[in-house]
Amino acid sequence: MKLHNLSFILLATIIGVAESTTGRTKLPDRYFQLMEAEARVIESHLATEPSADLKALERRPWWRHFPASALIAAVLYAKEDAANPRFRDPKMRALAL
Question: What is this structure's pTM?
Answer without folding.
Answer: 0.65
